Amino acid sequence: MKLLIIEDDPSLMEVMVSALKKEGHTVECASDYDSAAEKTGVYTYDCILLDIMLPGGSGLDLLSRLKKFGNKANVIIISAKDSLDDKVAGLELGADDYLAKPFHIAELSARIRSVARRSRRDGDFSLKFGNVTLEPESGRVFVAGKEMELLKKEFSILSYFMHRPEHLVDKTVLAEAIWGDHIDQTDDFQFLYAQMKNLRRKLQEAGADLEIKAIYGFGYKLAGK
Description:
Number of strands: 14
Structural class: alpha/beta
Radius of gyration: 19 Å
Shape: elongated
Largest sheet: 5 strands, parallel
CATH topology of the largest domain: Rossmann fold
Helix content: 40-55%
């Protein structure tokens, strides 16, 4: 998953980033209200870890702004303020969970997985398109019931498209979603082209009845054959 940590404590931020990256997440950070508002206004995230006390503004105000503009990211409030009023306010504004500091990283990881599961419908966490089934929790992909081996980035790319079947996806948006917002610093997409080439070849060789089509001048689209 792609996560945004909004936290002004650099030592806690470092611990969270290190632990969550080891679990395979793409992790970005913001340490104050303004940078958090900018990132959430430009980029998309699966889950936002939000501190209430921020330099320049309140995390609750930021949460209200996110919901006002229809941001679909799951939000877990992480704050040293463990009062009932703050918890209730956050949940009423649309937060998915509330975790008081100090906390164990294992509990944070469990909360992230929990809100991700709750956000999916009907208790079926797998993504299906054609004869391809992708399991986000286990990191496995099956074509017509037979498992297909993918590298980590290949899996992340396929997952991104399986969440958006038949949608046009700009290559810059795709690269930013998989590799993070530092991708803005380069206009060389060779790393993306290489991953896409390998993924498309593996899907074809496995007999998938879907394909990731290249749309000239724009990007890609997941479509059935």
